[in-house]
Amino acid sequence: MRKILCCISIVCYFVLAKAPIEPSFSLHNHEIQEPPALPQVYGMVLPDTINYFSQSHKKQEFNAFLPEFPMIMQVCAITETPVYYYPNREELLNGCYRGDKGLSFFELQPYQYWQTLKALQEVQLIPQIANHNVIRILINYKYAYSDQITTTIEIGDSNYPATSIVINGQTFHNNYDVVSAFYGLIKGIQEEAYPRDTAMY
Questions:
Q1: Other C-beta atoms within 10 Å of 114: how many?
Q2: Taking the CB of the first residue and of the last residue of the chain, which one, N or C, has fewer CB atoms within 10 A?
Q3: From CA 190, how far away is CA 157, in angstroms rounded?
């Protein structure tokens, strides 16, 4: 009896069993559905990315008057009638170190010069052929923890027509805004240091 029941159950299993489901990749057996529409954005013009990347974009130029990181500004300037003639920036800087008459020397923190020179952020200088520059103001930017100079700026004496602005060896035409800003900066520092003796330039 037990064997008969086993045989009947086996037969029923094979009769009721279905064929395994096989994946069908036929396009005719499945309904093709379109993806949902993307949300529409009104009042916004999307950029033409193809034309954007095909154009050459000018990189932002480094502004030498305002350093990228906080630095010490070393100022060596002719503020009165000098006793000696200084043919280059090395001689002028040595004269400031010696304390020659007619020269002024300052080392300024960022908070002392930043506000005054902030107006020079948009100044565009015009390149010029290098010539002999009669230096009136010499600016050196350096790190606070070392004597390494990162940027050197020479402001030519505006009393001489051939003078120029030299930044790290590159020569530019004199610019009124630049000259006025540095003259004003030095005058302001002198007024703070020597309030009774402000005669300059």
A1: 14
A2: N
A3: 19
Structural element, H or E, at residue 137: strand 135-142
Q: Is residue 151 part of a domain?
A: yes
Widest CA span of the chain, in angstroms? Answer: 133
pTM of the model: 0.65
**Residue 74: which of 141, 135, 136 has the closest Cα?**
141
DSSP 186-199: HHHHHHHH-TT---
Q: How far apart (Å, rounded) are the C-alpha atoms in residues 7 and 84?
A: 125
Count of structural domains, the chain = 1
pLDDT in tens, 15-56: 555 555 555 555 555 555 555 555 554 444 444 444 534 444
pLDDT digits (tens, 9 = 90+) for 114-159: 989 988 988 889 999 888 888 999 999 998 888 889 999 999 988 8
